[in-house]
Amino acid sequence: MKVQSLVQETPSELIERMAVAGRNAQRQLSRLTSEQKAAALRDGAEALRHSESKILAANAVDLEDGEASGLTATMLDRLRLDPARLAGIADAVLQVAELADPVGQVIDEDERPSGLHLSRVRVPIGLIGIIYESRPNVTADAAALCLRSGNAVLLRGGSEAVNSNRAIHQALVAGLATQGVPADAVQLAPSQDRALVGAMLTAAGLIDMIVPRGGKSLVERVQADARVPVLAHLDGICHTYVHSAADPVMARDIACNAKMRRPGICGAMETLLIDSDFVQAGDVLSGLIEAGCELRGDGRICALNPQILPVSANDWDTEYLDAVLSVAMVDGIDEALAHIDQHSSNHTDVIVTGDADAAERFLNEVDSAIVMVNASSQFADGGEFGLGAEIGIATGRLHARGPVALEGLTTYKWQVRGSGQIRP
After folding, report:
1. Which of 23, 116, 313, 335 has the fewest Cβ atoms surrounding its Cβ within 10 A?
2. For domain 11-232, which architecture applies?
3. Secondary structure letter of residue 361 according to DSSP
4. Which architecture does CATH list for 238-379?
């Protein structure tokens, strides 16, 4: 009797098979109308609501495992779901359904002297690979944004949220299927094998773009190893500069919110710059300390409050993602701009001021994806920008910058209409 051996797929073979299936599904998506895609997302949002108990039970297992493995309080907060947060995830999917479909939009058009009519039209990128950690909401956000923009998506979530991701994915795919969306349009990697990440990064010609969402080590690996175009930001070292003409109450409120609302998100302030001519600096610092923030300051800042610890040189380039903040005193806007130019990660930087000229100069000279005046950096979010949700924040200068949503998930093609022209 001959025994047939079973050959297990390698990570590369698995990713290739899933990518081919995703590309085929993307071609099927191109046949759906805008309203069909919107209806599918509405059904997907409703499926998430109906699966609340199952999703929350799965999340409870992830939280228990996370606590046992020593995840920090910040990481557990990213991971945690409750009825309100799950409702917010479903709402975000619903909001994406109501956004204008970018596919087919005419960017510009022209009639050439030859009589050719040229137009640039938005089209999907194709198959998007998302590699992410901790936050289970990314499973639904990424699926919704990719589907609305006509892309298929291959998701590889982190081990911390494996049960939550699977429960969300199962519910969402079941809802999307009611409108004819193929299951392979939204795929979740079935294994937590880290080799799958490497296989995705080298799947050139199969995966069209990679979006990493996670810690610095993940993004560094993706950017170093990828053979596929990457859309990402490495750090969220966000600054708030309190100008000499800042309103004292506004400065205190913005600083506290920018740091302490949710310290673990990429838009949280990591460095506070206070102008030496701003006389209420002590009040801003006291507000942060009272809110539970550990402050690390330079010599002049430490002299204002004995509870402030001395800053180290490395602190200016550290993304704490915790209730810790670096603080420097600067002599005017030139020094503030120089500090930001040296230490910012080009994510989000803020000025608090009542001086319109200083505000405009800051907006024009700070080279970051998001630059704000008199607002908390915690607004650096696709939902807050009216984009419905975001697939990530990009700090590079090519293709897309800032919160990446529907438009950032499209490219364009030229459509040329003629009437028999031949080139002389």
Report:
1. 313
2. 3-Layer(aba) Sandwich (3.40)
3. H
4. 3-Layer(aba) Sandwich (3.40)
